[in-house]
Amino acid sequence: MLLKPLCITTSEPYPNRILPTDSGEEANVSYAGGPRCTPAIDAGKLYTIGSEGRLLCLDAETGSVVWEKDLKQQYGIDSPHWGFSAHPYVQGEFLYCLVGGDGSVAVAFDKETGREVWRALSAEEPGYCPPTIIRHAGVRQLLIWNPESIQSLHPDTGEVYWSQPLAPNYKMSIAVPRKLGDLLFASGIGHVAAMFKLDDTEPDAEVHWRGDSTTAVYACNTTPFLEDGTIYGVDCHSGGLIAARASDGQRLWETFKPTTGDRNASHGTAFLVKHEDRFFIFNETGDLILAKLSPEQYEELGRFHVLDPTNECFGRDVVWSQPAFAEKCVFARNDKLLVCVDLASKR
After folding, report:
1. 3-state SS class at 72
2. Burial code of 221-242, b = ≥16 C-beta within 10 A, e = fewer?
3. How far out from the chain centre does Cα 172 lie?
């Protein structure tokens, strides 16, 4: 495999809680380690949100601004404690964003003009979970998880289909809810996890089970992966990769090998991406791991070091940016370096 740096900067990582913004001002957010949101690209345009709520639509080829909004100013809100972190989501003619404020936790914009189409929901804080759309009971449902509850909305109008309480500690609704058949799983810090049963005849949901300290997976920094009746996710309490049964949350196994090495570590982090019959796992130490996951075991096939951590959490050096995969390559970054790694066995 070939390691190819795409660009290198000589600047030091940003000091904790002070993050320069595009406007030259300083943003006061916790863990100020680079941008939060992954941009969305659609039909020649790029959409992104800065940590202080600057929403931009750019020409993807030239980088010129098509339209922009200051979400804090327009909606009269403050930045969340960890900054605006929910990725913008493009679907059809809409750009869905987590904003905040009274009646505007979720906002749908016209993706071409930036015009607000609708706003919905109220909560003390918006949280950090990106909007997503599922299809069930024959309809599309926009899922919004704020720190108080998960809601299903009509994507075109913002009408609430259903709502279920789910309140993680520290208002850290982060990981995207995952659907498996007629089940929907969401979890966060504080041993807060629930599997919801989706109604097959109309957009509705009820609690199938809730986890306790000995069951389920409590994913926080990263979104779990569900398949074949199993939940695979990194637990924010132990820092281990856990497999649990989707039917009842019973844990099947746990390992620290792909996350923090051989020790329990709060908020141990690794990103899971499925490819064919195996997973690419990018962990907080900067390693890319190839592994097979099954209800029976974790089987590591190989790993190599992509780049060094440039940030810190709980006394550990970490890199918490999720990589991107395209053109048989993986693209990964820290606060100093962006690299492209060739994953093809042959070119």
Report:
1. helix
2. bbbbbbeeebbbbbbbbbbbbb
3. 12
